[in-house]
Design goal:
The chain is mainly beta. The protein has two helices and 36 strands.
C-alpha cells in the first residue's frame, strides 16, 4: 500500500509471535504445528519444498537488506545477497517469490524500490529493475512476472509486467488506490488483484479478476475493467491459487484462496471456486495472516476439506499485533484432514463381528459405505465427483457397490458392524464417501481391507 505498506512493515517490527494454539483449522482441515517456526515480522520469505526458506531480512532501524537461505528452524545456511540502501536509513522488504522451476527467487524491497532475481544456490544475482513501492508479485513464466507496485504516485497502484531478462516493464492496469496482493491462475492466465478500499470503510476491499485477453489487449486497464470475484472484505493478507488438478479434465476444481486479514487480526482464509462462490473456510486466527503458499506432496490430493492428508498443505505467516514490544511472528501450516477408516473386532481373523469405524468425518452428518473386491484393486486414482470434490481410491471404478448409509455423531465418528462368516476374510476393500450436515458428498475416507 506504498506509504501505508511501509508504515505496516514498521509496525510489524514491534509485535511478537502468535501462539500456534490460537489458530483454528476449519472442519476437514488440521493444523500442522510441527512445521511452525519463528520468523521476524518484517521478513519476507518463500518456502522451498523441503522446508528451507529464502528470507529477505531487514533488521529494524538499519539500511541493510540480507537475503539468506535458512533451514526450517530459521538457522542461516547461505547468504544470497547483501544490499545497503543508498536512500533510506531503514529498509523494508516487500516479497520473495519462488520461480515456477524452483531454481530462482524474485525479491522486492520498497525503500530503494529494487527488484532482484537470485538463484537459490547462490550462483547468480541480477538486479532486474527499480520500481518504487513494489508490494507483491507473481510469476507468469520463468522470464516474466506481474508486480503490484506504486511507482505512479500516491494514492495509485499498478499491475506491471516485468521482463526478468531485460528489465523492461509494461503497465497493464492502474488504480486510484493503495497496493494490494496479486495472484495468477496458470491454466488460463486469469489474474486476481486485491483492490483496497481507499476510504478504509472496513468492508470495501475486494478481489478483481482480469482475463489473459484483457491483460494482453494493449491498453491500460482500470478498476471498472475487472470482474468482481469476491467483495465485502475487510483487509487483504494474500491470495493464492490451488491448481494441482487445474487442467482440461479437472478445470472445475481450481480454488482461489483469499486471506481476509483486518490489520489488527482475526483473520480467515477461505477457498473460492472459479466463479467466486465460497467453497470452504480453511483456517482462522486472531493474528494477521499473510504470505499464503500452497505446497503439494507426492501423494494425490488437493488443498480442500477431507482430502488426503499428505497431498497438499497451506503455509502462512501469522503476526500478532496485540502485544509489544518484542518482535516475532510464526510461519505456520494447515493441511486437509481425511476421514480415517479402520476395522476392529474379533471377526478380523476368525468368524465373528467386524466393525467399520470412521473418525474425523463431518459432524452430525452421514456417510455411504462402499465395497469392492480386493482382486480388482490397483494403484490409487482420482476422479471428480459430481458433488464437486476429488475422490481418491484404490478400488476399481467399475466394481463399486453401495453397502449402507451410516450417521455420524457430534465428534464426526460413525460405525457399521457386519458378520464375517469366515468366507469373506481379506476379499474386500471398504471406503466411506462422507456427507456434510446438508446431505451433500464432500470427501472420501482412507481405504481398508477386511
Amino acid at each position: 500500500m506504498q506509504r501505508i505498506a511501509t508504515l505496516s512493515l514498521a509496525l510489524l517490527s514491534l509485535f511478537p509471535a502468535t501462539s500456534p494454539a490460537q489458530d483454528t483449522a476449519a472442519p476437514g482441515f488440521q493444523l500442522v504445528t510441527s512445521l511452525n517456526a519463528p520468523v521476524d515480522p518484517g521478513t519476507a520469505y518463500a518456502t522451498l519444498p523441503g522446508g528451507e526458506r529464502i528470507e529477505a531480512r531487514a533488521a529494524s532501524g538499519t539500511s541493510t537488506l540480507s537475503v539468506v537461505r535458512v533451514d526450517a528452524a530459521g538457522n542461516p545456511l547461505a547468504t544470497l545477497l547483501t544490499h545497503v540502501s543508498a536512500l533510506s536509513t531503514t529498509i523494508f522488504t516487500s516479497f520473495v517469490k519462488l520461480s515456477p522451476a524452483g531454481t530462482h527467487v524474485l525479491v522486492g524491497e520498497n525503500s530503494d524500490g529494487n527488484v532482484w532475481r537470485l538463484a537459490i544456490d547462490g550462483s547468480t544475482q541480477q538486479l532486474v529493475a527499480n520500481l518504487p513501492f513494489n508490494f507483491d508479485a507473481v510469476f507468469e513464466s520463468e522470464s516474466l512476472a506481474l508486480l503490484s507496485e506504486a511507482s505512479c504516485g500516491f494514492p495509485c497502484n499498478r499491475i506491471t509486467r516485468l521482463d526478468l531478462l531485460s528489465g523492461g516493464t509494461t503497465t497493464l492496469a492502474q488504480f486510484a488506490t493503495y497496493s494490494g496482493p496479486i495472484a495468477r491462475r496458470a491454466s488460463n492466465g486469469d489474474v486476481f488483484y486485491g483492490w483496497v478500499d481507499p476510504t478504509f470503510s472496513g468492508s470495501g476491499d475486494k478481489i478483481l479478476r482480469f482475463s489473459a485477453a484483457q491483460l494482453g489487449g494493449g491498453g491500460v486497464l482500470s478498476e471498472n475493467d475487472g470482474a468482481l470475484f469476491v467483495g465485502g472484505l475487510n483487509g487483504l493478507g494474500g491470495i493464492a491459487v490451488e491448481e494441482r488438478y487445474d487442467d482440461a479434465l479437472w478445470s472445475q476444481y481450481a480454488r482461489v484462496l483469499i486471506a481476509e486479514s483486518p490489520f489488527f487480526g482475526n483473520s480467515t482464509v477461505r477457498a473460492h471456486k472459479p466463479d467466486g462462490s465460497l467453497d470452504a473456510t480453511v483456517v482462522s486466527s486472531p493474528a494477521y495472516i499473510s504470505t499464503l503458499e500452497i505446497q503439494h506432496g507426492t501423494a494425490g490430493g488437493a488443498l480442500a476439506p477431507y482430502q488426503p492428508d499428505a497431498g497438499a498443505r497451506l503455509r502462512y505467516k501469522a503476526t500478532d499485533y496485540s502485544v509489544f514490544p518484542s518482535p516475532g511472528a510464526l510461519t505456520c501450516a494447515v493441511r486437509p484432514q481425511r476421514p480415517i477408516a479402520q476395522l476392529t473386532g474379533p471377526g478380523l481373523g476368525t468368524p465373528g463381528q467386524v466393525s467399520f469405524d470412521l473418525s474425523a468425518a463431518p459432524a452430525n452428518a452421514s456417510y455411504l459405505l462402499i465395497v469392492s473386491p480386493v482382486a480388482l484393486s490397483g494403484a490409487e486414482s482420482t476422479r471428480w465427483h459430481p458433488n464437486d470434490f476429488l475422490w481418491h481410491t484404490t478400488m476399481a471404478w467399475n466394481s463399486l457397490r453401495r453397502l449402507v448409509n451410516v450417521t455420524t455423531d457430534a465428534g464426526g465418528a460413525g460405525s457399521f458392524t457386519f458378520f464375517n462368516s469366515g468366507t469373506i476374510q481379506g476379499q474386500y476393500l471398504l471406503q466411506a464417501l462422507v456427507r456434510d450436515s446438508g446431505g451433500g458428498f464432500v470427501g472420501s475416507s482412507s481405504v481398508v481391507q477386511n
